[in-house]
Amino acid sequence: MKYCLMDKKDIYEHLANIYLDASSKRKKKSRAFPKLFKNLMFLGSASVFLLTAFLVARFSHRQPANSEITLLLCPDVVKINFHFDPAKKETYAVSLNNLDLSRYRTLAFSVKKMNYKDTISLRVEFTSAFKESSVVYFKDIPSKWQDYKINLSEFKGINDWSNMSGLSFVVEEWNVREKKGIVYLDNVRFLK
To answer: Among 21, 22, 66, 174, which residue has the least CB neighbours within 10 Å?
Structure first.
């Protein structure tokens, strides 16, 4: 057997070399891991984004059989503030700019009145570019939000829905109990 005798100085140098080699390897490993982690995170995020984009492009043109296709006219709440002295009616009108509504079947909107004691009927009127007009009344507007849907065929005076010029919501003096009040409209839309 062969023995190697080392003095204190040699032992310290040997231990220092072992320690320095080990610490430099540890630093290399710790630097390599974050780069690998970042690369994997980037690839994962990119994969999710590309998969989402593919699925949206592939299936966005399909509509579920029971869904409603909507054309939203008024995204914000509309306030019809009436005071019948001397006015006889208060109107909220939407210009349809010769909009083609022939593909839509239903007018839908939400409505409520401010004063729960008041009795209010709301007149809804369509006007076409060909000067055709038709009116439907909604009686006893509630004091809590209620959604109304009406088939466009109920507007009997309109024969051609391809060139519509206007839609009006009217509160008339003879269709209210109180002479002052507020009617709110929201979510005015057309459904297919």
So the answer is: 66
